[in-house]
Specification:
Elements lengths: L1 E3 L7 E3 L2 E5 L10 E3 L8 E5 L14 H25 L8 E4 L23 E10 L5 E13 L2 E11 L1 E2 L8 E3 L13 H7 L7 E5 L5 E5 L7 E9 L7 E5 L7 E4 L6 E3 L1 H9 L5 E2 L7 E4 L7 E3 L4 E3 L2 H4 E4 L6 E4 L1 E3 L8 E4 L1 H4 L3 E5 L4 E7 L2
Parallel strand pairs: 1-8, 2-11, 3-15, 6-9, 16-25, 17-24
Antiparallel strand pairs: 3-16, 4-14, 5-13, 6-11, 7-8, 8-9, 8-10, 12-13, 12-26, 14-27, 17-25, 18-19, 19-23, 20-21, 22-23, 26-27
Protein name: Acid protease
InterPro entries: Aspartic_peptidase_A1, Pepsin-like_dom, PEPTIDASE_A1, Peptidase_aspartic_dom_sf
Family: Belongs to the peptidase A1 family.
């Protein structure tokens, strides 16, 4: 049995919520609201502190920004290439953890799985492998075993025990949270297995992201973290993303919401147009695609999918000041062409920290709610 009490904390949570707008003359999506209800049947799992692009002094860290751009670009570009070539290879639905046989230097400080120490371990056919756009790779054999994630236990869960891990970072592995149809392992995700085995009584999981005390809630919602009704939208599950139809002030765009991305990335030309409308904004010469603005003049930015407008707060819009004495801040909207085409926007933590997000497998729907004050 593979039992990792705090598995969620060191794992990088991987999922993609894809939101498509309608055509250039869109019909607004009709959201459905459900009243707040106490739901204590699930399990609240604390997440590690979220790290932004500012250093400890509140100054924009150019090196962090460059790494975030490279990681985000490579992850999504390679995921798209993989999906196009294999019809379902996004990696957002798989669980992998380093093997005790991993000799890579990047494995040295990570939690590991030892199949020989588990009486319930069963080797599976095939090999799991992902190669990212920057050349980093993850590969290893596939196993089925009893798995416990932060107190939720399932049997016969398929996962990869990677023997080659060239990815450095403060996480052990990946816990995919998208639909199972995207799985490289060709098996159900951990959460869907938990649903099928009645390990959770509610078919929802929810995210609360903050600078401190972030939380993944498996098996429902934590009603202490949001207020009012949850605005739900029906999910188009093909090919397996959390994808909803809606509209925005900019028509004909695709929006991906990703907890593994720090800021909001949009096509270079569209982002340039956006910042041209912000008074006194400036492009950063040192970091192409990023822009600065007067810290006391934060632009109003919001997203809507046919219902409520979800505003980006001034605190989450700022990625830090340009230097320790500057009155200019770096904005969380940056221009990067990440490989999905000229109309795709990627909404990371800078968006998700403003909403409580509910993913509902039972009704194939996605919900947003206002955060509790």
């Amino acid at each position: 049995m593979f039992n990792q009490r705090s598995l969620i904390s060191p794992l990088f949570l991987s999922f993609a919520l894809v939101v498509f707008t309608a055509s250039a003359t869109p019909t607004p999506a009709v959201p459905r609201s459900e009243p707040t209800a106490a739901n204590n049947a699930g399990l609240a799992i604390p997440l590690r502190k979220r790290s932004g692009l500012a250093n400890s002094n509140g100054v924009f860290d150019a090196d962090k920004a460059k790494l975030d751009v490279v990681f985000t670009h490579n992850k999504h570009r390679q995921n798209m290439l993989n999906y196009l070539s294999t019809q379902g290879s996004f990696g957002s639905s798989d669980l992998w953890i380093p093997s005790s046989d991993c000799s890579s230097s990047t494995c040295s400080s990570k939690s590991k799985y030892d199949s020989s120490a588990s009486s319930t371990s069963e080797a599976q056919s095939g090999t799991f492998q992902i190669q990212y756009g920057d050349g980093t790779t993850v590969s290893g054999p596939i196993f089925a075993d009893d798995v416990t994630v932060a107190g939720i236990s399932v049997t016969g869960q398929h996962f990869a025990s990677v023997t080659n891990d060239s990815i450095s970072g403060p996480f052990d592995g990946i816990l995919g949270m998208a639909y199972s149809s995207l799985s490289n392992l060709r098996s159900t995700t951990f959460f869907e297995t938990a649903i099928n085995q009645s390990a959770v009584s509610n078919k929802q999981f929810s995210f609360y992201l903050a600078s401190n005390a972030s939380e993944l809630y498996m098996g429902g919602t934590n009603d202490q973290l949001y207020t009012g009704d949850i605005e739900y939208h029906a999910v188009d599950t093909n090919p397996g993303y959390w994808k909803i139809s809606g509209w925005n002030v900019i028509s004909d765009i695709t929006t991906i919401v990703d907890s593994g991305t720090t800021v909001i990335y949009g096509p270079t030309a569209a982002v340039k147009t956006f910042w041209e409308s912000v008074p006194n904004s400036k492009a950063l010469d040192s970091d192409p695609g990023f822009y600065s603005y007067p810290c006391n003049q934060t632009p109003e930015v919001s997203f809507s999918w046919g219902g409520q407008s979800w505003n980006i707060s001034a605190a989450t819009f700022s990625s830090g000041s340009t230097d320790s004495t500057s009155e200019y801040c770096v904005g969380a909207v940056a221009g990067q062409d990440i490989g999905f085409g000229p109309s795709t926007w990627l909404l990371g933590d800078s968006f998700m920290r403003n909403v409580y997000t509910v993913f509902d497998f039972g009704s194939d729907q996605l919900g947003f709610a206002q955060l509790s004050s």
